[in-house]
Amino acid sequence: MNRIANRGSLPVSGMWRGASLFLMLLLVAGTANAVTCTSVASQDWNNRNSWSGCNNSQPPTGATVVISSGTTITADSNTNTVADITINAGGTLVGQNNRTISLSGNFTNNGTFTASNGTVALVGTAMQTISGTITFANLTLNNAAGVTISGNVTVTGAFNPGTTPLVITAGSTLTINGVVYTGPCSGVYGAGFCSAPSVASINLASPNPTAGNTAVSWTVVFSQSVTGVDITDFVLVQSGGVGGASITSVTGSGTTYTVTASTGSGTGSLGLNLVDNDTIVNASGTPLGGVGLGNGNFTGQVYTVSACSPPANIPSSVIVSCVCDNFGRTNLNPSPIFNSNWIVSSSDGLGILPYINATSTFLRLTENTNNNAKAATVPGIFPAAGNYISVEFKHYAYNGSGADGVAVTLSDYSVPATPGAFGGSLGYAQRTIAGGGGSDVSGFAGGWIGVALDEYGNYQNPTEGRVGGPGFIAESVGVRGSGSGLTGYNWIGGTATLNPIVDNRGSTTPKPGYSYQVIVDARNAAATAVAVNRDTGAGYTSLVNIPNIYTAATALGFTQAPVPNNWQISFTGSTGGSTNIHEIGGLRICAQTVLPVTGGVASGYSAIDEAYPVAAGSTVPSYQNFQTGHIYMKLPATPFKLWVAALSNTGISSGYSAASAKYAQVKLVDNTVMAGANPVCGLDSARTCNSACTGQPAVETGATQIVTFTKGGPGAALSPSFTLNSSWKNLVAVIQECTSASCNAFTSTAAACSADSLSVRPTSFASVTSAAATNTGTSGTPTLTAGSALFDLTATTTGVAGFASGYTGTPKINSASVQPASPATVAGMLAGAFSAAISGTPSSTASGTSFTYNEVGGFYLLGPDFAVPRIPGVYDDNWTATDSDPTKNDCNSGTTAAAYSNTKDVSGKYGCNFGITANTAVFGRFVPDHFDTAVLPVAGVPMPCPSGQVCPTLYNGFVYAGQAFTTQVIARNQAGFTTQNYAGGYAKAVTLSAWDALGSTVLQNPAGGTLNNPAVSAASFAAGVATTNIPTYTFATAATVPTNIYLRAVDTDNVTSLRVTNPTTTSVEGGVKVASGRIKVSNAYGSELLPLTLMATAQYYTGTGWLNSTTDSVTKLASINAGYSVGTGTSNVTVSPATKVLSLGSLTINLGAPGAAGTVILAPTIDPASPGNPPFAVGTGTIIPGTATFGVYKSKNSYIYRRESY
């Protein structure tokens, strides 16, 4: 404000003297002078006496504020936007009442700041700083220049930083609702703020092994959304014979990127590593791993690169990886297949194991000597169930006398490869004494199928203990099925003698070199197909085709074993009395999934509900279920399990634990914990887990289990039982691979989150109680007024003894379940709401303290009756929102019994909702909020208000003192509606009283009158209304000025028509004007030869005299005879109206000429049938008789009668 101050004289001289003075002062606004306001007293911020240096006011906009030692300033209202605020040591600033302290400068706390429930807002345009140790209830930032945190700052309530840049200095912390951010860091608050991003995983995204000169990809997942990811951030690691590989592209955004590379040429391995150069940053500008080169480095997964490619006859819909071994080296081991070793054995005692022959460069299985029995197993694991596999090799049998042959075996990987009987069984089938074999020799251990290239001809011959077959067929291919020990290995298919034949015994060099292909298509494991093809130079032709090995086996009278989880592939060679050299070359094995002998490495994990069924022909659910499956809602203290799978890029990693058992920890973590504006675990279809999520603890002791993937298992397993004893709104399963069964440490394999979250709800509300509404009877206390009295309700959940409930939801009330308690018959409306529940041990309680009920009596809440249908009176259908979401349907929602069921349905789902399971106790007793009274017009009473009088609005009429009038008493709730249940036992005796004005407490029984018959019995109430027609109001003196009275009703529960708030304007109390009344009959005299007329008139007293009651057309007179004796004559009487009911206050009485002189005294009475029966009577001054005199003069001329005669 600009002011003009004059402490001396302001002279006006010259031409202005003696003239009117017009003075114009131009005040030019400028910048307000900055002031420093220092507190000098412990008072309110807005109290000018709290400050010095403040120009006798509160701190103005732009002021510097100092809270000095020994003073406490309370900001009880919003402040101006000051500049700096400094709280000195010993000083205290208090923010409260949801008020806002605004400043454009720095906030420095060296004393005490008590946040209460207030807000501090930093709204400057230059960089602001918060210094010291400060706890804010609510903090708002709106400064594009930024805010620096220098100290330890905590926000316990709402934090609204907008897009204000934040800088947390080294050694400082900012704690937001329990989440601590430690400096130095900077950026805009949000997901990933003040935490360095990291690499969660670099996993293979293409089939492995792969071929040279092809494109492969890796999926790179970061813990946070990042930018700046490009080719320069990655390096390829080439080993073995791989060379020329290069990164071709990097695509993606957010947390997930794809790196694509060319595999180059040669065989070996190709890996991808990320090399941190600080160019990858999150939204806050924090580089990968934090500031510093190399601290975000990560080693990714590795491809095996093979020079072989798939054969042309692989179905186009099948994507395979291939491994090859051409044996063109000196030593058999290590093999180029996974750089691992062939497993070789011999049972012939010759001391020669399978080896690579230096001359032929092929894998030699037998020499051309007698009684060779040798085997070689491929170094690899080949997933079986759900997989397609093709085994190709070149076969050489030469330089001998034509025996016995070679078999290729696919056996169960979980069973160590041990060859079967040699000779005619070719290392696959059994031999038995009983069958004439001379000794008992078990068949191939774990053998599922054995395909033999039989030169001699006994493989298809049911001799020596072999089961089934057409007989001796030389130079043929035969197929035998599964078996164990001396049982099984049944013949299931084969060829006749082939042309060209299998061997070339006369050749001294490797011959004939035909290619053979064995295909097992177990993509539909329940209908596995087996085929054997041969290429003699013009392409593959079919030798054996078994479309469904199970139906083929059934047709032959035996049962084929189910496809195992994983294959191992072995070659066996045999000679007997006849010989050949047996060799293989050009081995190529192609399958949808191929794994090294060390087992699979999971590219991810998935957890789904135990309710998912196993896939056909498998022991675990399908891959699609693990990709998209959910975890259903659970109940406390109810054990449940989860299916957990190790996944590859194309399916369940069925070879994951092929080599040895593996273990994974599954823990359930709370996903309501927030990281910035989002839940800490950001779920997605890739099931990626950020470090903040994996670092969350399990919510309970029973929320962690170790899943065992048994050796040779299918890559998925059912967990041990979880048991959660508390309720949880949103849980996520975090899966992490352990180094051992005890899970004391984890491997480097990236953790995974379930793709779905789950909730756990209480089984019911055990009770609903009230501390205030405890009167279940029709009388006594406590009482609560209908629609106005606030009362409490508390819903208590069913819990598990010794455990915190965890439920913090908000119960709801089903209004349709509100029922009146007998003898009440009408249900009122229950208004109000529960607050969010508070978790306790073992139950949670949700209370509301502002409930109202708008009827009289008591009420209770019904339990569910789904046949009606009716849901529970108190329920929660929102706690399980993460599962009841219609896009998920992980529990049964709706209003049916299934939606509230604590028993699983056939699909394994519980109801989403819970509530009370039985009727509650009665809550009461509710009484009317107030009465309304009304004076009712009945049969013309009250009578219209006479002219000149002011009568009550209700009713605008009057009665005579002592005249009965009709009064109605209506029981009302707070909103003014009639309480229908105020009757019977809930109705109480009512007493009426008369008052001088509406809502008055000044004068009862005005004008010294008396209200007679004031009692209204309880029994007279019906549906909240009672009517009485006997009250009268009388005065102590017969002539009393007209008086307005207002009828007040009070019952024995002290319910009254006198309203509490503004009673003179809000009370509804019927009124009537009461007037002193009388009947006066006029006098008349005249000739006995003529009739006389008298008037009976109703009158009321005005205070100065009596006026005719011209509005009285209801009073009826009696005691008027039909005739009177007059002297010697008789006077006949007629009245008008003939009914003897006054008209406009009067009745005309006509006396006929008696013919004789005399008098008649007329003193009528009130007919008891007269409405209200006014108590008028002769002798009380309320009936004044009239006299008719016949035979007297009417004037001074002494004539009695005169007439003219013409």
TrEMBL record:
<dbReference type="InterPro" id="IPR046524">
    <property type="entry name" value="DUF6701"/>
</dbReference>
<feature type="signal peptide">
    <location>
        <begin position="1"/>
        <end position="34"/>
    </location>
</feature>
<keyword id="KW-0732">Signal</keyword>
<feature type="domain" description="DUF6701">
    <location>
        <begin position="753"/>
        <end position="1204"/>
    </location>
</feature>
<protein>
    <recommendedName>
        <fullName>DUF6701 domain-containing protein</fullName>
    </recommendedName>
</protein>
<dbReference type="Pfam" id="PF20419">
    <property type="entry name" value="DUF6701"/>
</dbReference>
<dbReference type="InterPro" id="IPR013320">
    <property type="entry name" value="ConA-like_dom_sf"/>
</dbReference>
